[in-house]
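Q: Joint fold for the lines below.
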Amino acid sequence: AQSVTQLDSHVSVSEGTPVLLRCNYSSSYSPSLFWYVQHPNKGLQLLLKYTSAATLVKGINGFEAEFKKSETSFHLTKPSAHMSDAAEYFCVVRVVGGAGRRALTFGSGTRLQVQP
Amino acid sequence: DGGITQSPKYLFRKEGQNVTLSCEQNLNHDAMYWYRQDPGQGLRLIYYSQIVNDFQKGDIAEGYSVSREKKESFPLTVTSAQKNPTAFYLCASSIEGTGRVNQPQHFGDGTRLSIL
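A: Joint structure:
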């Protein structure tokens, strides 16, 4: 079975400083991993995805994530936070289950606050 | 622009009443999904459909029903049997099929359901 754990429920940074949102996963197979962002009362927007190609994945808005198999981690980073980055972030693993089921398993989310 | 449209944005339900949430997509995606989001939690899968006229239960299907008569539409009915329906409901879609198992899901902006 697949699962994903986001290690911090809240992260607060100052504008212009680096962002690190941590995610660990467990999977019986080579996983597909995603990071999504959700702004208040909105749907989820895809930031980036890992699908067994390059281990360092670049996404939109300056975010990137590194897949580390030995650590079963997929942490999200950004060199310099912007006020508009304040949102909820979800780490997600793709499940390929019985009968062709293909659905996503979501972490519980990390709320990012950016202080001026 | 292609996308997923959910309506209404806010919905109120009386005790014992069934309500239907609309989800329409013009992305020509085969698969569609319904998720429930509760405060401070990730998303949980209610139902999914990989093709027209077929759908499968997710992790929390009790008290919900769906139909998939058209590729573009995947309405969700919250029945009176769902005893705790207050939540944010998100609809998603994705391309599926051979060679496309790692494609991300695209989300609508959600419907917030409350009990009167």
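Q: Anything notable?
A: Chain A touches chain B at residues 9, 32, 34, 36, 41-46, 49, 51, 90, 94, 96, 99-104, 106-109 (CB under 8 Å). The mean pLDDT of chain A is 89.
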